[in-house]
Design brief:
GO terms for molecular function: DNA binding. This protein is mostly helical. About 70% of the residues lie in helices and about 0% in strands. The protein folds into 2 domains: about 55 residues, lambda repressor-like DNA-binding domains (434 Repressor (Amino-terminal Domain), Orthogonal Bundle), CATH 1.10.260; about 120 residues, no CATH class. The protein starts with a helix and ends with a helix.
């Protein structure tokens, strides 16, 4: 499903007209119609729509789209393929890479000036491994949704409640986090 179709699906679920959604985002309703027929919708529109429609899936599409790892760009939504890549390859590689953080003193170094070029290269490799796992797990979640009909919105809401109960997050922190803004997207690209 492309971004435009997903936008339309989520708008219809909330029973908003194109005009109503457009007014809340700050664009004309006819522009929403054009977006819904495109494969790619501008990130700022998707992020705004995600907030208005209370849709983590829209936000993931908007902010997740630049997180493409070449090897995984063409991964399909076959759960077996995703399981094999994630469980057999990517997660073990990521965990092995993360042990290198201890070797370079990552947990005690607080400033970029404390890292050598070799340390930075290790951190780059680890970031790449983490990104592979994120992409695989994203596809895994989408497959779970399509196969079982579960609501990812409910999963995210339950997760937010769990993190708040543990004292890790507050609603205010989430709204102000880099991932909740379009600034995050432009910094990732």
């Amino acid at each position: 499903m492309h971004n435009g179709s997903l936008l339309k699906e989520k708008r219809n679920l909330k029973r908003l007209s194109q005009q109503e959604l457009g007014e809340q985002i700050g664009v004309d309703g006819s522009q929403i119609s054009r977006y819904e027929h495109k494969k790619v919708v501008p990130t700022d529109i998707m992020v705004s729509a995600a907030e208005i429609l209370d849709s983590p899936e829209l936000r993931w599409e908007a902010l997740g789209s630049p997180l493409k790892v070449t090897m995984l760009d063409n991964i399909d939504n076959n759960l077996g393929t995703i399981k094999d890549i994630t469980v057999c390859n990517e997660v073990p590689e990521m965990l092995k890479s993360i042990t290198k953080l201890v070797m370079i003193g990552f947990f005690s170094k607080l400033r970029p000036s404390q890292y050598s070029e070799d340390d930075r290269e290790i951190c780059y490799e680890i970031s790449s491994q983490v990104m592979d796992v994120i992409v695989c797990l994203f596809h895994f979640l989408v497959s779970l949704k399509h196969r079982t009909g579960i609501s990812l919105e409910k999963v995210e809401k339950d997760y937010e409640l769990k993190m708040k109960a543990k004292g890790f997050r507050s609603s205010e922190n989430r709204k102000n986090s880099p991932a909740a803004t379009s600034e995050f997207n432009s910094s990732v690209i």
